[in-house]
Amino acid sequence: AAKDNGRGRFFFYAEDLHAEAKARAALEKDLREALVKGGLELNYQPVIAAAEEKITGFEALLRWNHPEKGRISPEKFVKIAEETGLIEQIGEWALRTACHDLAKWPDDVRCAVNVSPLQFANPKLPAIITSAIAEAGIPAHRLELEITESVFLSDDANTDAMFAALKKVGVRLALDDFGTGYSSLGYLKKAPFDKIKIDQSFVRGATEPGSRNGAIIQSITSLAHALGMDTTAEGVETLDELDLVRVLGCSHIQGYIYDKPLSMADATERLRTGLDAKAQGPKSARAPRQ
Ligand code: C2E
Ligand code: MG
Ligand code: MG
Ligand code: MG
Fold this sequence. Notes:
single chain, 8-stranded mixed beta barrel, 11 helices, globular, disordered C terminus, binds ligand C2E, Phytochrome-like protein cph2
C-alpha cells in the first residue's frame, strides 16, 4: 500500500509541476506584453539622509498591475523575467524610464535603479547606461546602480571589468541586501561601492531585547564609513527602529516610516512638501546615549 501511495504521489507531483509550468509560461507571455504595451510602471521610494532628515534621492521599484490578476509582486515577476532573459529588456526600460524621470527633479536628487546579475553580465550595460543618461541629459553621478552580491558568483575577470567600466561612466554603485548572501569582505575590498544597503532582515527585530542585529548593523556601518562608503538601513518601519539605526551610524534611511514607494507624481510632490511630520519623531539619536 505504501508503494502505491508513493506512485500516486509521484503522478500528483508531475501534474502539479506541469500546471505550474503552464502558469509561468502564461505569466511570462503577459509580462512580455506588459513591457511592450506600457503595462509596467516604476514607483519611487524616498531615501533620507539621517543627519539632515532630508530626501537625497529615490529607489526606483518596478510595479506590474496584471489586467486580470491585479498587482504581482516584483519578487515573483523579476524572478520569471530573470529565468527567461526578459529582464534584459525590462531592466533597460527601467534604466531609461528612471533617468527620464530623474531629469525632472532638482539636480541634488539622485535615483537608484536595481540591476539584475544578468544585466551586469552583459558587456553592453555601460553603453546602455551612457545612452540612457545622455538621452535624459543628466550627469552620471545622479544615477546609482543597486547590485546584489550574486554578481560575484560569476566570472571574476568579467566582474572586475564591468565594475571598472561602470566607474568610468561615472555612475554610483550600491551593494544591495548586504548581509543576506555570502557577504565576503573581499567584495568590499575590490569593488568600488559608494554605498552599502543593510538588508531589512537586520533592521527587523533589532529593537528587541537581546537581539544581535544592532551589533551587526553597527559593525557594518563602521566598516563602510572607514572605507568611505555610505550606508542605507532598508525597511525601517517604526520610530524605535529609526532611532536605533541612527544611533548605530547609518547615514541613510529607507522605509515605510517615511514613505512607501510612490508614484512619479507623488514622489515629485513629496520633494516639494518635504517629509511627513509623523516621522519627525524623538531625536534621541542626537542626544547622548543612556
Ligand atoms: P530591493 O531592491 O531590496 O528593494 C527594497 C524592497 O523593500 C522593495 O520591495 C520595497 O518596497 C521594500 N521596502 C521598503 N521599505 C520597506 C519597509 O519599511 N518595510 C517593508 N516590509 N518593506 C519595505 P519591492 O518593491 O516589493 O521589491 C522587491 C524586490 O524586487 C527588490 O528588492 C528588488 O530585488 C526587486 N526589484 C524591484 N524593482 C526592480 C528592478 O527594476 N530591477 C530588478 N532587477 N529588480 C527589481
Ligand atoms: Mg534595491
Ligand atoms: Mg534591498
Ligand atoms: Mg531585496
